[in-house]
Input
Amino acid sequence: MKTRLNLSIDYTVLEDAKAYAAGKQTSLSDMVETYLKTLTRPAKRTSVLDVLDKLEKPKGKKPVDATDEYYRERASKYGF
Output
């Protein structure tokens, strides 16, 4: 069921919105309705941590201690 809604907005905003709607071949009412639906729809976002947990774990060598590796490389390069 559709119902009427009265809005008060700046004239230039209205004219720009009408021109935009015409360019998209839709009505201003449909644009406003779609926008309000997106505002009130619950977000379906997933956490970055959930995405990272789903990634395949790397295979190969076990993790290297970066500090020990740094000093070993420096010793071989500079003869410490």
About this structure: The chain has four helices and no strands.
